[in-house]
Amino acid sequence: MPIGNRVVSGLYKGTVSGYNFEARLDVDGTYPQMEFSLTLTNQLPGLWIARMQSAGTDKWEGDIWYRHDKANTIVIGGIKPNKLAVEYISSGSGKSLKFYFKKDGTNLWWGTIPQTSNDFRQTQLELDYEQGVERWLTYDTSSLPRPAGVAAEELTLEKIYGRAGIEITRSSAVNAVSGTEAGANAGWNDQELHDAMIANWSRSEGDPWAMWVFFAKEYENDPGFVTFGIMFDTIGAHQRSGTAIFSKSIEDFYPPGTANRDAIIKRHHFRTMIHEIGHAFNLLHSWQKQLPGYPGWHSSVVNEPNAGSFMNYPYRVAGGEEAYWRDFGFRFSDQELLFFRHAPEAFINMGAAAFGASHAEKASTMELMQELSGQDLEQATLQLDLRVNKQRPVFQFMEPVVLELKLKNISHQPRSVEKSILKDIGHMTVNITRNQSETKQYRSYSQLCFTDEKIILQPGESLYSNLFLSAGSLGWYIADPGAYEITVALSVEREDDEGKEIVSSSFSLIVLRPDLQRRREEEKLAQDVFNDDVGRILAFQGSRILGSGNDTLQELTERFPQASAVPHAQVALAVPKLKKFKTMDFSNGQPQVKVQDAKLEEASQELQKVLVEKGTETANTLGNIGFKQISDQLSQELADKQDNKTAAAIEENVLQVMDKRGVKLPTQVKQEIESKLKSLKS
Fold first, then answer.
1. Among 130, 376, 425, 507, which residue's Cβ finds the most Cβ atoms within 10 Å?
2. pLDDT in tens, 273-326
3. CA torsion angle for 636, 637, 639, 641 (degrees, to 10)?
4. Do the Cβ atoms of 429 and 444 come closer than 8 Å?
5. Residue 113 has pLDDT above 90, yes or no
6. What does DSSP assign to residue 3?
7. Which of 562, 518, 537, 548 has its CA nearest to residue 476?
8. Does residue 132 share a domain with residue 98?
9. Which residue range(s) make up the domain with 313?
10. Average model confidence (pLDDT) for the chain?
11. Is the same domain home to 36 and 137?
12. How are beta strands 500-511 and 394-395 bridged, if at all?
């Protein structure tokens, strides 16, 4: 018996009168959704979904409630079908399905195709783990209290996804990645993880696994943030996704002395693994199914903030972790199962659609904001402001755009918000429109899963962050000269936990044409700049393995040293050299962590040219937040090497540059810098 206990249900494929069909019948087994989806895959691609009811022994029939692609317009004999019917046939030659297109009670067209699997879809995974890191690929449900109805059993990755209708095939071994060279440099940063994903995906030998899961020890969080996992979107022709899960973040979340700590940690590890792989299938968090601008892949999709699902966060549900685990059935919600089993192929296939994209035709952000919130704008408690730190929002050709976001409490009462609200792209929809015509939705290269820590904004207080906007997983969004309109809609939990408050803001900017005197040269180089590798290097502020992209940025700095894009290039080329840099080596078949030595003196000299010698110009294009972030990185590395004098000079330079620019630093930021200076000079 298959994992999902399906007999009739599963995947049927075949050709009828020259037309290729895939059918997914979902009427028995584990969590049956009573749906039938029929996909035409060749000349006129289309998808129909019908909700089924029994019409006799091994027969089902139902109204078509969803159409995709050409299914919206296909007619049979001039008549548009409104029903689907099926008959399951089991004989000595195997299992098959006879399907009918119907108009009310009339059969319009039919065909018979064989069953090819009791699962609805298949995918392949490769799992590796950093040596010494616990990886929990199974979980015994009897190890902790469980809801009534949940059996005492050992759960596996294959069992969870098999019950959801996905057949998981794993590579033959779970490899231990030797990390002896890493030494004390154990934490992984975004640049290193991104390079590791690229190194894995670039291997040409063997099967092109659809997803790589890497169990790492530790993530280099920003101070005050805790990250359990990160999902990287598609890279390259193989259209593969990858995720990393951080064991130390999970273990540290439960302090010593916590009752049943070992079992709780193992359960959290297992849930996080299933959760992150779910993201690779394009599943959003339970509370994010109706993102501003993308209401869902069909009109009935709703947010499920209290769902007992793998895609929820235990501490987000009403009643907290205790309530979540009390009701959690170690499964996905029915909405998620419907998506897994019946959504259009391009929406769910790893790499076929960017994370969170393609779930619906794009709606007006402002219209959806009103539809979702139903809120009186006079009752708003928060205000979102967008800006760039320039006198005028005008960018040179090839100059990257970094947008600064400010979320302000405009009410007269303290307001709690998630600490990560401006860092987690999952909370927001960003639409970019060029010349009042084509609109693209911004998708970042990666998605972090943070803890749900709340902070209090007092009346008038603000939260700040920045967003690299020029490029993402769907390519370059801001490249060609023209006028751009940026609209950001942010979904924030209401103070009373009664739904969401949607705050939105728009911002306009202009990208200039190349300078007339060097137009041909710039346009020629731009062909290399506006590619995926360079976009990734700029977004992650560096790479040690994307050599071609690094060469392009180096050429940019040498040929056009006065260009506003140059500080971005210099930062991306220098930052990876600040400290020892981990890379993943797959050359010997067994993955191994290699550590490239830091080049701190070289990096410091390069960054001081950008931050000190041209500090005002650099802050003008990186933005105040970005300027301080890079300065802090350099200062910290210098201090770690006991060069307190230079580290202090870098911090003092931040104050001087901000003063020259007429920037009034928030009190907390200024106090933080002054405290660092006092420590460095003591």
1. 130
2. 999 899 888 888 898 787 655 557 888 888 898 999 999 988 888 888 899 999
3. 160
4. no
5. yes
6. T
7. 537
8. no
9. 121-348
10. 87
11. no
12. parallel
68, 144: one domain = no
Of 297, 319, 348, the residue that ends a domain is 348
Q: Rounded to the nearest 10 degrees, what angle do helices 644-660 and 667-681 cross at? A: 150
126 and 109 in a single domain? The answer is no
Q: Looking at the structure, tell me whether residues 54 and 66 fall in a common domain.
A: yes
Amino acid type, 449: C
* Total structural domains within the chain: 3
Query: How far, in Å, CA of 675 to CA of 658, rounded?
Result: 17
User: β-strand 121-130 against 211-216: which pairing, if any?
Assistant: parallel
- CA–CA distance, 302 with 288 (Å, rounded to integer): 9
In three-state secondary structure terms, 446 is: strand
Token output for 547: 């050599």
138 and 188 in a single domain? The answer is yes
Tokens 């003008």 correspond to what residue? 620
144 CB neighbour count, 10 Å cutoff:
14
pLDDT for 616-649, tens place per residue? 999 999 999 999 999 999 999 999 999 999 999 9
Domain end call among 314, 348, 382: 348
Encoded amino acid at 464, one letter: Y
Residue 607 in domain: yes
**Contact assessment for residue 128 and residue 584, using Cβ atoms and an 8 Å cutoff:** no
Round to whole Å and give the CA distance between 595 and 356: 34
Q: Which helix (H) or strand (E) holds 192?
A: helix 190-201
Nearest alpha-carbon partner for 86 in 10, 178, 173, 175: 10
Flag whether pLDDT at 266 surpasses 80: yes
Residues in the chain: 682
Distance, CA of 400 to CA of 402 (rounded, Å): 7
pTM (two decimals)? 0.78
Report residue 225: phi and psi, to 5°. -115, 150
Question: Is 394 inside any structural domain?
Answer: no
Q: DSSP secondary-structure letter at 141?
A: G
